[in-house]
Specification:
Strand order of the largest sheet: 7-22-23-21-20-17-18-19
Largest sheet: 8 strands, mixed
Radius of gyration: 23 Å
Number of strands: 23
Structural class: alpha/beta
Helix content: 25-40%
Strand content: 25-35%
Bound molecules: S-adenosylmethionine
Distance between the termini: 62 Å
Oligomer: single chain
């Protein structure tokens, strides 16, 4: 048995003591005791708890691996997430005025990736146990919208129908305006019998759409998402912001950062989360790598009333970023890249000297790298807001406003 004192929280949410020793489920300042194996104290006994420690609000927290930080006070988590961003910026000698964090409410996630497996008695659906492939049922999950938690029996029924005895299904369930949108992967091949069984199941559970592997198995109603004044039907599994509140906070930041622009380019536009609401006030060119998503965005725009012109382009912005000559017609840009960031595209934005940039990021490290490139090109970061759509997790998102000095 050894005793250690936790100094800080690592990026995966584990407490870290000198050594380093990684201690899951602990907080800075806590004194803990346990066996250390290969730098990990897997089963710590907490001798001195932190005053930031709280009783996990969710009854599943002990076993479920879905949340990492339920044992910490909300204020601690908020401060820690802001600290992660400050730290990433400081590695590039950058600072910014931080706005108060916007944290999404419990039970507000619009999408869940459940796992499901057949069992001797039927099937089991839920999330994986911490560090294991065992599935824990989570009917009272405090993270996801109650409509998603209520879909667990449907997910189990899908496993009974379509998984092999040993295999595990991954079932992405998304809440849409028209009911649940379900995308299943890891199942057996879709044959005529399965197709017919899925149709019965979808009717019984009033599901809007079921995708099986790469195929749309059935659409009872197009599962649309509201984006400003437009209703968009995303391709199965397409990226969506995680919570309506988080999306609203990001959109408010984006709107403010590009306010007054007449023609904006939306880079990594997805299905139009920002492009379509912005089109209420300005012309938009939406650029996105996935052709199915640009098609959905375009269709949503065409069906909506009263929006300004929205053009779209399917383009790989890592390999083939928009160049200064492509960018000169825009007076602002929105950029919301995947975790890898947007090194190549940001270099071109900086070369183009586009006057204002709204930057949305899900990775503080690549954001800080890209922000440093903008800083070197004469941009000022007017403000930054951490937007926590993934409460109780270690995931950090943000929106920031950049302005070219003297523009
Ligand atoms: C974080 S999501 C943002 C989507 C959109 N802005 C939204 O809020 O819904 C990043 C988007 O980048 C797209 N993407 C990923 N790699 C890309 C690439 N190399 N070129 C263009 N788009 C890419 C993904 O398909 C995804 O839609």
């Amino acid at each position: 048995m050894e005793q250690v004192t936790i100094e800080r929280l690592g990026h995966q949410g584990d407490g870290i003591a000198p050594g380093p020793v990684f201690v899951p489920g602990t907080l800075p300042g806590e004194v803990v005791e346990g066996e250390i194996e290969k730098g990990v104290m897997a089963a710590p006994r907490i001798l001195t708890p932190s005053d930031q420690r709280v009783k996990a609000p969710c009854r599943h927290a002990k076993s479920c691996g879905g949340c990492q930080l339920q044992h910490a006070h909300d204020d601690f988590v908020a401060e820690w997430k802001v600290g992660v961003v400050r730290h990433a910026l400081s590695a590039h000698a950058l600072e910014a005025p931080f706005r108060p964090i916007a944290t999404s409410s419990p039970q507000s996630r619009r999408r869940a990736a459940f796992s499901a497996r057949r069992t001797k008695k039927g099937a089991l659906a839920g999330f994986h146990m911490k560090g294991s492939d065992v599935i824990v049922s989570v009917p009272d999950c405090l993270l996801v919208d109650p409509k998603l938690a209520a879909a667990l029996p449907l997910v189990e029924a899908l496993a009974v129908l379509g998984s092999s005895r040993k295999g595990e299904l991954s079932v992405l369930v998304t809440k849409s305006l028209d009911g649940l949108d379900v995308a299943v992967s890891g199942g057996k091949p879709l044959d005529a019998q399965l197709q017919s069984d899925l149709a019965d199941l979808a009717r019984a559970h009033d599901v809007a759409r079921v995708a099986w592997g790469d195929e749309v198995a059935l659409t009872r109603r197009p599962p649309s998402q509201r984006m400003g004044r437009a209703d968009v039907v995303p391709p199965p599994g397409a990226f969506l912001q995680a919570t309506p509140e988080g999306e609203a906070a990001l959109l408010a930041g984006v709107r403010e950062a590009v306010k007054g622009a007449r023609h904006v380019v939306d880079l990594f536009a997805g299905c139009g989360t920002f492009a379509l609401p912005l089109a209420e006030d300005m012309r938009v060119h939406a650029v996105e790598g996935d052709r199915g998503m640009t098609a959905a965005l375009d269709k949503g725009w065409r069906m909506a009333d009263g929006l300004k012109h929205v053009t779209h382009e399917a383009r790989d912005l890592f390999r083939n970023p928009l160049l200064p000559e492509d960018l000169e017609r825009f007076d602002a840009a929105v950029i919301d890249p995947p975790r890898a960031g947007a090194e190549a595209q940001v270099a071109e934005l900086a070369r183009a000297g586009i006057p204002r940039i709204a930057f949305v990021s899900c990775n503080p490290v690549t954001f800080a790298r890209d922000a440093a490139a903008l800083d070197a090109a004469g941009y000022v970061m007017d403000w930054l807001q951490v937007v926590d759509q993934f409460r109780w997790s270690t995931h950090v998102e943000l929106v920031a406003a950049f302005r070219l000095q003297g523009a």
